[in-house]
From TrEMBL:
Stored SMART domains: Excalibur (SM00894)
Biased composition (Low complexity): 81-93, 132-143
Domain PASTA: 1-67
Protein name per Swiss-Prot or TrEMBL: Excalibur calcium-binding domain-containing protein
Compositional bias of kind Basic and acidic residues: 147-159
Gene source species: Streptomyces flavotricini
Domain of life per record: Bacteria
Disordered: annotated segments: 77-118, 132-159
Skewed-composition ranges (Gly residues): 106-117
Length: 159
């Protein structure tokens, strides 16, 4: 998969169409900024699968975009304008997981392709993630870990 980060969606989307048969999935890189209906001039901040990853004709490609003049967030789904409401009243973006990560110091198979920004969401199995309403999870999103991404396409619990 080539790197599309930094490119305008018009160019990146056209290149993706040559690689895969499915339509490219696009979303705003900020959870509180809606994607404009005309987003051809928006820039790519994040992509799944990651640059350098193998891609097949039937792969799903997701691009997270920002409006012209806006910086990319540190992680996909970040908030551009923090709420002025007290943090205690804020609703979490992802339901709380029903399981806890291992406490034996062992590896949890963490996300190898994202920022690893300290997400507290952890799902032992895809069934747990589905029960919490968090599946599918994309690389860089809370709860994603490569152990749940069986085909290593950047989308965990998608099948």
């Amino acid at each position: 998969m080539p790197s599309f980060v930094g490119q305008k969606f018009a160019d990146a989307g056209a290149a993706v169409k040559k690689l895969v048969s499915k339509p490219v999935e696009v979303r705003s890189a900020y959870s509180d900024v809606p994607l404009a209906s005309d987003h051809a001039g928006w820039a790519v901040c994040f992509q799944t699968p990651a640059a350098g990853a193998p891609v097949e004709q039937a792969s799903t490609v997701e691009l997270s975009l920002v409006a012209p003049g806006r910086p990319c967030p540190d992680k996909a789904g970040a908030v551009l304008v923090p709420s002025k409401a007290p943090a205690a009243s804020a609703t979490p973006a992802v339901p709380k997981p029903k399981t806890s990560p291992p406490t034996d110091g062992g590896s949890t198979g963490g996300d190898t392709g994202g920022s690893g920004a300290g997400s507290s969401a952890y799902y032992k199995t895809c069934a747990d993630a589905r029960a919490a309403g968090a599946a599918p999870m994309r690389r860089g999103q809370p709860g994603y870990r490569s152990a749940l991404d069986k085909d290593q396409d950047g989308i965990a619990c998608d099948k």
